[in-house]
Fold these 2 entries.
Entry 1:
Amino acid sequence: MDRERAHKGGVLLLVRNSIPAKDFQVDTKEQSEIQAVKITVEDTEITIHNLYCPQDKELSLHCMDIASENSIVVGDFNSHSTCWGYDHTDRRGDEVEDWQIDNALSVLQALKSSKNKDLNDLTSALTSLSQTHTIALQWIPSHCNVFGNETADLLAKKAAALQQNDYTTTYSEAKTIIHAQQHEEWLQEHPNHVQNDAYHALTRAEQVVIFRLRTGHNRLNHHLYTKLHIGTSDQCTCQTGGQTVIHVLQHCPMYENLRNLMWPQDTPMAQKLYGSLDSQQHSCQRLGCPFE
Ligand SMILES: [Zn+2]
């Protein structure tokens, strides 16, 4: 991406010549620098945004159109959050986190410590894509005094310039072996991986609602008041308790009739949020209204 009044820095996306790609402009009113490209992989269109935000600019997250199913956002956000490995969360971290959750995006960095079931669709998508393509996704923390980063970079460049060994294992064989091994390790590290989460069968709008219910990041008073300091208390308008997800789904007298209609029998929270397709649809179609 060309900068008009600066000499270095900026963002750059490289796309292999054999992949159909089309780049487009994202207007951030001179805040973050964003480069975007749509690529097509086997009839699937994938939108990739690459963002660089200097300390003194606004993040401009909402300038990106990430409504499509297949969106990848990479970049240097200059933001800290415990969600991606920092020991604290700063203001920008909060901003990125809320934007990420609002848009049902998964944080790649969180894959390593994936207790979060909501990352399953990202991991499944990556697994399925890796059947036909080689994917290398690497998170590189910047400004963190990571020892050896520069050295590794230098060595990688030197190594790439050397004459390569002629191994008898073909590229494709090596790929298959690595893939099988990684898959095995991943399954061992994620014993609770839910392969058939009905979440995947929901519409994207429904997924957003379920995601907000599961994570507690939503527009209910409890989250607004305790996390974002909006409003005067976390109380529900029924005045019988804090307006949390469990309150609305299980206890709030204002939703009692609706609940009885949706779930005639006593149904635990886990069933409503992680259960059958029907159950999850009920949670977002009717009771979901305050979460949109
Ligand atoms: Zn209530």
Entry 2:
Amino acid sequence: MKKLKMSRLFPIILTLIFLVGMGCASEDQSKSSAFIKKYKALQASFWDRYITKNDQKSKVGRAPDELIDFATMYDQKFQFPGHPKPSEATELELNDIDQALQQVPKSVFDLMGNRFYGIYLAQDLGLTALGQLVADEQGKPIGGFILIDETRIHTDANSWRTEHENLFFDTKDAKLEGVIASPKGNTHVAALRWILLHEMGHLIAGLHQEIFSTFKQGQKTSANLGFQTLSWEVKNRAYISRFEDKMLSREKLQAVKIGTKAWPEQEIVPVYEGLQQTNFPTLYAATNPGEDFSESLAAYVNVFVFHEPIFVSYRKGDSHKVFESCFSNYKCPDKIEYFQRLLKPNP
Ligand SMILES: [Zn+2]
């Protein structure tokens, strides 16, 4: 792995992230800042009692009442169909999440700083999981936590991914499978590991402004290569993928992502053929820069740390096609090398 200098840390960019249905959406900076200041559970002082030391142990638990209250407010505010209830997770379920957390590389964990408040379970959240920033008294984000709906995470890695991938399409005769694990590695823990890495990606992006340096400013700073410059441009204050002409219209992807529209199944092959001409590791990564970062982080760790595959398999009649992720076949070296730099071991 190439050793390159890690860029210095910049002040914080605020993002508020949640995973709804198939995935996440994010709020803009000003809304997030006000939001964080308004709720106790989003402030560092609330969490002091939960912090003992910054290691990867003992960071998994059932959501305290304050988090259930927060989630209830969240669903109301953003009109999610949930009625959050306390966790009834078994020790076995908690243990699986703990195992997944232990598998997160230390270099990823360390990027969350010294205030990762942990992973908390609840029921009927109206969404699968959310990664939420926590702020200090000045409203500056200094940490975060992950809240997971325990009723939505019972599958193995490939079943989960298949379900996720199929949400993009109105599939009838075709069979579309998402694969992120070898037969041996296809476990429940592997599914959880991807979900955790994805949510941690949102927290990390919120805590490290250099990752989206030009994302905030709307212009390139050239000396500091923001992650989003690898795939995105700013046009009229909106983020446009550099690959809009490859069947990956952002508008289409956004519409699919928020569940207002799914592509008909005849679009499956053209969409994935288009994806293969980009540097997005997954289709979901192409929805916006934040999801791009989270999916890329999860994909990088999956391929280069765990040596697991990432591909989509399409079957219809006699036709069978496999669309490999550019992280698996090394066709997006720019993005892969970005994560090599970001996750290089501390000296
Ligand atoms: Zn997300």
